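ok here's Molecular chaperone:
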Amino acid sequence: MKRLLALCGVSLLSMMAQAGPQINVGVVYDYLEGDKSTYMKRIFNGGTSTAFVKVSILEILYGEDGSYQEVPLEDQDGVLARNGLMASPARLIVPANAMQGTRLLFMGDRSKERYFRVRFVPVVPEAEDEFAVSAEEREEYKKERVAAGVKVLAGFGTVFFVRPKDTRFETVIDNSASRYLLRNNGNSVVVIDEFKDCLAKTDNDCRPTTKHHVMAGRTFAFDKEPGREYRFDLIEGTEKKTVEIKG
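and the structure:
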């Protein structure tokens, strides 16, 4: 009987942990092509209750040594400067098993590539959050969370690449007998997607699949090992080609 009660308790805790909103932001990396100024990002709520989601944006600034910092977009006299990425709307109400979208709009300088962290954070709506709900609806939502045992709402951060207006790809390859090197001489990020390092002729003996972003002026390289094969998709904007290399 005690074991049965313990199993019931674990099952109840599991159900409580799964209760509430469960948002899914789709892919982690998004790219705004040089001839576009807006991008639609859709958020799905696979949970059991409505998700109130706040969208926040920080700009990612990279140093020469590869380090980076995330900084708020500049304000001018209390008004967001028109030189960066904005989300409209920045507050989303996503019902259970439904989807809503926010439009990411870029305005400002596009002479070089820029990078942003876009965060989608579910919250318990408060009056100052500016969600279009009444005080009664806010209180009811809080009661539902307490009853369901939901204490932590998981948020997600994505990376948004804004390509230059005049995007130029110039990928230089040095494929020697012992080493493969790719240099990005263009002005926009190149993606090494689904990079696989496998034992030759044995697809099920591979090291973990990885993804790499090669920014302008940077390189991607690896040493070849005898008896191994390397495969990946080289993505330059909307163009993709599969590359296969033998060690």
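+1. The domain at 171-246 is CATH 2.60.40 (Immunoglobulin-like).
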